Fold this sequence. Notes:
With about 150 residues, the chain is of the alpha+beta class. The protein has one domain (about 35-145): CATH 2.40.50.140. Helix content is about 40%, strand content about 30%. It has three helices and seven strands. Strands 2-4-5-7-6 form a five-stranded mixed beta barrel. It starts with a helix and ends with a helix.
Amino acid sequence: xxxxxxxxxxxxxxxxxxxxxxxxxxxxxxxxxxxxxxxxxxxxxxxxxxxxxxxxxxxxxxxxxxxxxxxxxxxxxxxxxxxxxxxxxxxxxxxxxxxxxxxxxxxxxxxxxxxxxxxxxxxxxxxxxxxxxxxxxxxxxxxxxxxxxxxxx
Length: 153
């Protein structure tokens, strides 16, 4: 084999190896990608049924039920609500009326959480959760103002 052919074979081999490595990295990235959904999006059936995703919003007041390590609660964005079940120890900052993000899967209308994260201080909320709550507040304002207009003579 001529030296020129050897160089071409080496370059082609290197390209094949690099493209294979890039393909493996992209495949791993795609399988570990987790999207965020609000309870309104879950109610609208925008969330995947058989895939892991994150559900975020506020823990509805009066909804936390504990039975040993089994905990059930409701996550709301003030517009819609989604029931959540979790088995394990909750974070210390987990409280009713506070922000929460749970990661898991939706099964039979109940979100089965594998991980629960509570907001870590008074000012922080994940951007996706904050946006979902702002959207719900705008919808509530529109609905409230249309009700007020309809009731006035």
